[in-house]
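Thread amino acids onto this structure.
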Protein backbone atom coordinates (compact mmCIF):
# COMPACT_ATOMS: atom_id res chain seq x y z
CA UNK A 1 0.00 0.00 0.00
CA UNK A 2 1.29 3.54 -0.74
CA UNK A 3 2.28 5.74 2.22
CA UNK A 4 -0.48 8.14 1.17
CA UNK A 5 -3.15 5.54 1.25
CA UNK A 6 -1.90 4.18 4.56
CA UNK A 7 -1.94 7.65 6.11
CA UNK A 8 -5.47 8.31 4.81
CA UNK A 9 -6.51 4.94 6.20
CA UNK A 10 -5.06 5.68 9.66
CA UNK A 11 -6.79 9.09 9.72
CA UNK A 12 -10.07 7.55 8.64
CA UNK A 13 -10.25 5.20 11.58
CA UNK A 14 -8.94 7.69 14.20
CA UNK A 15 -11.55 8.44 16.83
CA UNK A 16 -13.41 5.17 16.41
CA UNK A 17 -11.53 3.47 19.21
CA UNK A 18 -9.39 1.69 16.65
CA UNK A 19 -5.61 2.11 16.45
CA UNK A 20 -3.21 0.39 14.05
CA UNK A 21 -0.93 -1.91 16.04
CA UNK A 22 1.84 -1.48 13.46
CA UNK A 23 2.30 2.12 14.69
CA UNK A 24 2.62 1.03 18.29
CA UNK A 25 4.22 -2.40 18.37
CA UNK A 26 7.75 -1.19 19.17
CA UNK A 27 6.52 0.80 22.18
CA UNK A 28 4.22 -1.92 23.45
CA UNK A 29 6.42 -4.97 23.27
CA UNK A 30 9.97 -4.10 24.16
CA UNK A 31 12.94 -6.42 23.91
CA UNK A 32 13.74 -5.51 27.53
CA UNK A 33 12.33 -3.31 30.32
CA UNK A 34 12.50 0.38 29.43
CA UNK A 35 13.52 1.42 32.95
CA UNK A 36 10.97 4.21 33.20
CA UNK A 37 11.42 4.73 36.93
CA UNK A 38 14.86 6.22 37.56
CA UNK A 39 17.30 5.56 40.38
CA UNK A 40 17.00 8.07 43.21
CA UNK A 41 17.95 8.61 46.86
CA UNK A 42 16.06 10.41 49.61
CA UNK A 43 18.51 11.34 52.36
CA UNK A 44 16.92 10.73 55.73
CA UNK A 45 18.42 13.80 57.42
CA UNK A 46 16.82 16.09 54.82
CA UNK A 47 13.50 14.27 54.53
CA UNK A 48 13.26 14.14 58.33
CA UNK A 49 13.64 17.90 58.56
CA UNK A 50 10.68 18.40 56.21
CA UNK A 51 8.66 15.79 58.10
CA UNK A 52 9.31 17.48 61.46
CA UNK A 53 8.10 20.78 59.96
CA UNK A 54 4.94 18.94 58.89
CA UNK A 55 4.59 18.05 62.57
CA UNK A 56 4.27 21.77 63.28
CA UNK A 57 1.98 22.80 60.43
CA UNK A 58 -0.56 19.96 60.39
CA UNK A 59 -2.19 17.89 63.13
CA UNK A 60 -2.82 14.17 62.74
CA UNK A 61 -6.58 14.89 63.09
CA UNK A 62 -6.36 17.14 60.05
CA UNK A 63 -4.04 14.93 58.04
CA UNK A 64 -5.36 11.48 59.19
CA UNK A 65 -1.91 10.21 58.29
CA UNK A 66 0.93 12.75 58.54
CA UNK A 67 2.98 11.45 55.66
CA UNK A 68 5.39 12.79 53.07
CA UNK A 69 5.18 10.69 49.92
CA UNK A 70 8.52 9.66 48.41
CA UNK A 71 7.58 10.28 44.81
CA UNK A 72 10.09 9.12 42.22
CA UNK A 73 11.18 12.24 40.25
CA UNK A 74 10.96 10.08 37.10
CA UNK A 75 7.24 9.44 37.85
CA UNK A 76 5.92 12.94 38.62
CA UNK A 77 2.33 13.28 39.79
CA UNK A 78 1.91 9.53 40.34
CA UNK A 79 2.56 9.23 44.11
CA UNK A 80 4.74 6.26 43.14
CA UNK A 81 8.28 5.29 44.04
CA UNK A 82 8.25 2.54 41.40
CA UNK A 83 5.60 1.99 38.75
CA UNK A 84 3.74 -0.45 41.02
CA UNK A 85 4.58 0.71 44.56
CA UNK A 86 4.29 3.63 46.93
CA UNK A 87 6.55 4.81 49.76
CA UNK A 88 6.05 7.49 52.38
CA UNK A 89 7.55 8.71 55.65
CA UNK A 90 5.04 8.99 58.48
CA UNK A 91 5.42 11.01 61.69
CA UNK A 92 3.41 10.26 64.83
CA UNK A 93 4.07 12.54 67.79
CA UNK A 94 3.55 11.66 71.47
CA UNK A 95 -0.13 11.34 72.35
CA UNK A 96 -1.29 11.15 68.74
CA UNK A 97 -3.55 8.53 67.19
CA UNK A 98 -3.80 7.82 63.46
CA UNK A 99 -7.45 6.69 63.29
CA UNK A 100 -8.68 3.24 62.32
CA UNK A 101 -9.61 2.47 58.75
CA UNK A 102 -9.27 -0.33 56.26
CA UNK A 103 -8.62 -0.41 52.54
CA UNK A 104 -7.84 -2.90 49.83
CA UNK A 105 -4.29 -1.55 49.54
CA UNK A 106 -1.86 -3.48 51.71
CA UNK A 107 1.05 -2.06 53.66
CA UNK A 108 4.38 -2.83 55.25
CA UNK A 109 5.83 -0.48 57.82
CA UNK A 110 9.53 -0.23 58.64
CA UNK A 111 10.11 1.66 61.89
CA UNK A 112 12.94 4.18 61.58
CA UNK A 113 12.82 6.22 64.78
CA UNK A 114 11.13 6.08 68.21
CA UNK A 115 10.16 3.20 70.47
CA UNK A 116 6.84 4.38 71.92
CA UNK A 117 4.34 3.64 69.15
CA UNK A 118 2.05 0.74 68.40
CA UNK A 119 -0.03 -0.42 65.50
CA UNK A 120 -3.25 -2.38 65.90
CA UNK A 121 -4.02 -4.63 62.93
CA UNK A 122 -7.34 -6.50 63.01
CA UNK A 123 -7.38 -6.32 66.80
CA UNK A 124 -3.76 -7.33 67.32
CA UNK A 125 -1.91 -4.53 69.09
CA UNK A 126 1.82 -4.58 68.42
CA UNK A 127 4.55 -2.39 69.83
CA UNK A 128 6.71 -0.90 67.10
CA UNK A 129 10.47 -0.66 67.69
CA UNK A 130 13.20 0.60 65.39
CA UNK A 131 13.87 -1.85 62.53
CA UNK A 132 10.65 -3.80 63.14
CA UNK A 133 8.45 -4.62 60.15
CA UNK A 134 4.67 -4.43 60.67
CA UNK A 135 2.25 -5.89 58.13
CA UNK A 136 -1.21 -4.64 57.19
CA UNK A 137 -2.84 -7.13 54.78
CA UNK A 138 -5.55 -5.98 52.37
CA UNK A 139 -8.86 -4.93 53.99
CA UNK A 140 -7.54 -5.19 57.56
CA UNK A 141 -8.53 -2.60 60.17
CA UNK A 142 -5.53 -0.61 61.32
CA UNK A 143 -4.81 2.32 63.59
CA UNK A 144 -1.57 3.58 65.09
CA UNK A 145 -0.81 5.41 68.31
CA UNK A 146 2.13 6.88 70.17
CA UNK A 147 1.63 6.50 73.93
CA UNK A 148 4.64 4.81 75.49
CA UNK A 149 5.89 5.76 78.96
CA UNK A 150 8.70 7.82 77.49
CA UNK A 151 6.80 8.87 74.40
CA UNK A 152 8.98 10.28 71.64
CA UNK A 153 8.44 11.19 68.00
CA UNK A 154 8.07 8.09 65.87
CA UNK A 155 8.93 7.94 62.18
CA UNK A 156 8.36 4.99 59.92
CA UNK A 157 8.42 4.14 56.26
CA UNK A 158 5.06 3.10 54.80
CA UNK A 159 5.34 0.75 51.82
CA UNK A 160 2.03 0.23 50.02
CA UNK A 161 0.84 -1.32 46.76
CA UNK A 162 -1.25 1.77 45.91
CA UNK A 163 -0.28 2.05 42.21
CA UNK A 164 -0.95 -1.69 41.75
CA UNK A 165 -4.45 -1.41 43.24
CA UNK A 166 -5.09 1.73 41.15
CA UNK A 167 -4.00 -0.15 38.04
CA UNK A 168 -6.67 -2.79 38.71
CA UNK A 169 -9.19 -0.08 39.72
CA UNK A 170 -9.93 -2.08 42.86
CA UNK A 171 -9.73 0.54 45.63
CA UNK A 172 -12.16 0.40 48.57
CA UNK A 173 -11.90 2.31 51.86
CA UNK A 174 -13.91 2.27 55.10
CA UNK A 175 -13.42 4.35 58.24
CA UNK A 176 -14.19 3.03 61.72
CA UNK A 177 -16.47 5.41 63.67
CA UNK A 178 -14.09 5.15 66.66
CA UNK A 179 -10.47 6.31 66.38
CA UNK A 180 -9.07 3.07 67.80
CA UNK A 181 -10.32 -0.49 67.40
CA UNK A 182 -10.68 -2.79 70.38
CA UNK A 183 -7.44 -4.67 70.80
CA UNK A 184 -5.71 -7.37 72.75
CA UNK A 185 -1.96 -7.81 72.69
CA UNK A 186 -0.51 -11.10 71.49
CA UNK A 187 -3.73 -12.81 70.41
CA UNK A 188 -3.89 -14.62 67.10
CA UNK A 189 -0.67 -13.05 65.79
CA UNK A 190 1.13 -14.09 68.98
CA UNK A 191 0.38 -17.76 68.32
CA UNK A 192 1.75 -17.52 64.79
CA UNK A 193 4.85 -15.73 66.11
CA UNK A 194 5.49 -18.72 68.38
CA UNK A 195 5.29 -21.13 65.42
CA UNK A 196 1.70 -22.14 66.16
CA UNK A 197 -1.55 -21.97 64.22
CA UNK A 198 -4.90 -21.38 65.89
CA UNK A 199 -6.59 -24.64 64.91
CA UNK A 200 -10.01 -23.11 64.42
CA UNK A 201 -9.14 -21.09 61.37
CA UNK A 202 -7.01 -20.70 58.34
CA UNK A 203 -6.08 -17.09 57.70
CA UNK A 204 -7.17 -15.30 54.54
CA UNK A 205 -4.03 -13.16 54.65
CA UNK A 206 -0.70 -12.99 56.49
CA UNK A 207 -1.63 -13.57 60.17
CA UNK A 208 1.69 -12.34 61.56
CA UNK A 209 1.51 -8.65 62.44
CA UNK A 210 5.13 -7.95 63.34
CA UNK A 211 8.64 -9.09 62.48
CA UNK A 212 10.85 -7.81 65.34
CA UNK A 213 14.23 -6.51 64.20
CA UNK A 214 16.52 -7.61 67.01
CA UNK A 215 15.52 -11.26 66.74
CA UNK A 216 15.52 -11.20 62.92
CA UNK A 217 18.99 -9.69 62.73
CA UNK A 218 20.39 -12.16 65.27
CA UNK A 219 19.12 -15.08 63.15
CA UNK A 220 20.46 -13.53 59.96
CA UNK A 221 23.88 -13.04 61.55
CA UNK A 222 23.94 -16.72 62.57
CA UNK A 223 23.04 -17.67 58.99
CA UNK A 224 25.76 -15.34 57.63
CA UNK A 225 28.40 -16.99 59.79
CA UNK A 226 27.70 -20.35 58.13
CA UNK A 227 27.21 -19.55 54.44
CA UNK A 228 28.69 -17.61 51.51
CA UNK A 229 26.95 -14.39 50.51
CA UNK A 230 25.28 -13.70 47.19
CA UNK A 231 27.79 -11.61 45.17
CA UNK A 232 25.61 -8.49 45.32
CA UNK A 233 22.65 -9.08 47.66
CA UNK A 234 24.85 -10.44 50.43
CA UNK A 235 23.37 -12.72 53.09
CA UNK A 236 19.71 -12.28 52.46
CA UNK A 237 16.49 -13.58 53.95
CA UNK A 238 12.91 -12.99 52.86
CA UNK A 239 10.14 -12.04 55.27
CA UNK A 240 7.48 -14.69 54.70
CA UNK A 241 3.82 -15.24 55.40
CA UNK A 242 4.00 -18.20 57.83
CA UNK A 243 0.62 -19.49 56.65
CA UNK A 244 1.80 -19.97 53.06
CA UNK A 245 5.60 -19.95 53.23
CA UNK A 246 5.35 -17.44 50.40
CA UNK A 247 5.97 -13.69 50.20
CA UNK A 248 4.93 -11.45 53.11
CA UNK A 249 2.07 -10.05 50.97
CA UNK A 250 0.62 -11.08 47.60
CA UNK A 251 1.69 -7.83 45.97
CA UNK A 252 4.95 -7.07 47.79
CA UNK A 253 8.05 -8.97 48.86
CA UNK A 254 10.42 -7.81 51.59
CA UNK A 255 13.96 -8.80 52.47
CA UNK A 256 16.68 -8.19 55.02
CA UNK A 257 20.31 -8.42 53.90
CA UNK A 258 23.70 -8.22 55.49
CA UNK A 259 26.15 -6.82 52.94
CA UNK A 260 29.83 -7.61 53.54
CA UNK A 261 32.45 -4.88 53.62
CA UNK A 262 33.93 -3.77 50.30
CA UNK A 263 32.72 -3.94 46.70
CA UNK A 264 30.14 -6.44 45.46
CA UNK A 265 31.65 -9.39 43.64
CA UNK A 266 29.68 -8.59 40.47
CA UNK A 267 26.41 -6.97 39.42
CA UNK A 268 22.78 -7.95 39.85
CA UNK A 269 19.55 -6.97 38.17
CA UNK A 270 15.96 -8.08 38.36
CA UNK A 271 12.65 -7.01 36.88
CA UNK A 272 11.32 -5.84 40.25
CA UNK A 273 12.31 -2.20 40.75
CA UNK A 274 13.48 -2.24 44.36
CA UNK A 275 13.42 0.14 47.32
CA UNK A 276 16.43 -0.21 49.64
CA UNK A 277 16.60 1.16 53.17
CA UNK A 278 19.99 0.77 54.87
CA UNK A 279 19.55 0.23 58.61
CA UNK A 280 23.18 -0.13 59.67
CA UNK A 281 26.50 0.78 58.04
CA UNK A 282 27.17 2.99 55.04
CA UNK A 283 28.40 2.66 51.49
CA UNK A 284 27.66 3.42 47.85
CA UNK A 285 25.48 1.81 45.21
CA UNK A 286 26.35 2.12 41.53
CA UNK A 287 23.43 1.85 39.15
CA UNK A 288 23.02 3.11 35.58
CA UNK A 289 26.34 4.98 35.65
CA UNK A 290 25.34 6.81 38.85
CA UNK A 291 27.08 6.24 42.20
CA UNK A 292 24.85 6.96 45.17
CA UNK A 293 26.27 7.25 48.70
CA UNK A 294 23.98 6.07 51.51
CA UNK A 295 23.70 5.97 55.27
CA UNK A 296 21.18 4.40 57.66
CA UNK A 297 17.53 5.33 57.00
CA UNK A 298 18.18 6.83 53.56
CA UNK A 299 15.78 5.45 50.93
CA UNK A 300 17.24 4.34 47.58
CA UNK A 301 15.20 3.17 44.60
CA UNK A 302 16.74 0.93 41.91
CA UNK A 303 14.92 0.70 38.56
CA UNK A 304 13.78 -2.52 36.95
CA UNK A 305 16.51 -4.45 35.10
CA UNK A 306 19.29 -1.91 35.80
CA UNK A 307 22.48 -3.72 36.87
CA UNK A 308 23.74 -2.54 40.24
CA UNK A 309 26.47 -3.20 42.78
CA UNK A 310 27.37 -1.96 46.24
CA UNK A 311 30.57 -0.88 47.96
CA UNK A 312 30.21 -1.09 51.73
CA UNK A 313 32.36 1.07 54.04
CA UNK A 314 34.21 -0.35 57.07
CA UNK A 315 32.35 -3.21 58.71
CA UNK A 316 29.21 -4.59 57.14
CA UNK A 317 25.83 -3.07 56.32
CA UNK A 318 22.27 -4.18 57.05
CA UNK A 319 19.73 -3.31 54.37
CA UNK A 320 15.96 -3.73 54.28
CA UNK A 321 14.37 -3.88 50.83
CA UNK A 322 10.96 -4.34 49.23
CA UNK A 323 9.61 -4.69 45.73
CA UNK A 324 6.72 -6.13 43.70
CA UNK A 325 8.56 -9.44 43.23
CA UNK A 326 5.63 -11.29 44.86
CA UNK A 327 3.20 -10.00 42.23
CA UNK A 328 5.57 -10.52 39.31
CA UNK A 329 6.31 -14.07 40.45
CA UNK A 330 2.61 -14.90 40.79
CA UNK A 331 2.08 -13.56 37.27
CA UNK A 332 5.01 -15.52 35.85
CA UNK A 333 6.95 -12.38 34.93
CA UNK A 334 9.83 -12.12 37.37
CA UNK A 335 13.42 -12.47 36.10
CA UNK A 336 16.80 -11.92 37.69
CA UNK A 337 20.41 -12.02 36.51
CA UNK A 338 23.62 -12.12 38.50
CA UNK A 339 26.91 -11.38 36.74
CA UNK A 340 29.50 -12.63 39.20
CA UNK A 341 33.10 -11.43 38.94
CA UNK A 342 35.52 -14.07 37.69
CA UNK A 343 37.48 -13.91 40.97
CA UNK A 344 34.99 -13.58 43.82
CA UNK A 345 35.79 -11.22 46.66
CA UNK A 346 33.94 -10.84 49.94
CA UNK A 347 34.55 -14.29 51.36
CA UNK A 348 33.56 -14.76 54.97
CA UNK A 349 31.62 -12.48 57.27
C1 LIG B 1 -2.41 4.37 55.20
O1 LIG B 1 -3.50 3.72 55.63
C2 LIG B 1 -1.34 4.59 56.05
O2 LIG B 1 -2.28 3.34 57.82
C3 LIG B 1 -0.23 5.25 55.61
O3 LIG B 1 -0.56 4.51 58.23
C4 LIG B 1 -0.15 5.72 54.32
C5 LIG B 1 -1.18 6.04 52.16
C6 LIG B 1 -2.23 5.90 51.33
C7 LIG B 1 -3.36 5.22 51.74
C8 LIG B 1 -3.44 4.70 53.00
C9 LIG B 1 -1.41 4.10 57.46
C10 LIG B 1 -1.22 5.55 53.46
C11 LIG B 1 -2.37 4.87 53.88
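Threaded sequence (349 positions):
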Amino acid sequence: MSDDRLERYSKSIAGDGLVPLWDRFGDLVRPRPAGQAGAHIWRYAEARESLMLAGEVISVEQAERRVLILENPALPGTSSITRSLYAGLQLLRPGEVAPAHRHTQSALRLILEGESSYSTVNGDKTAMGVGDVVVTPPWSWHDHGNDGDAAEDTVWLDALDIPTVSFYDASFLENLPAASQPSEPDGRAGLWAAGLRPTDRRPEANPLTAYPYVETLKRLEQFAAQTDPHPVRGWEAEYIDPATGGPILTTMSAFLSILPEGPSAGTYRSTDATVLVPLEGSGTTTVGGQTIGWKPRDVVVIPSWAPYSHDVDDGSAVVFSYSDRAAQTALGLWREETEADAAPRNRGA
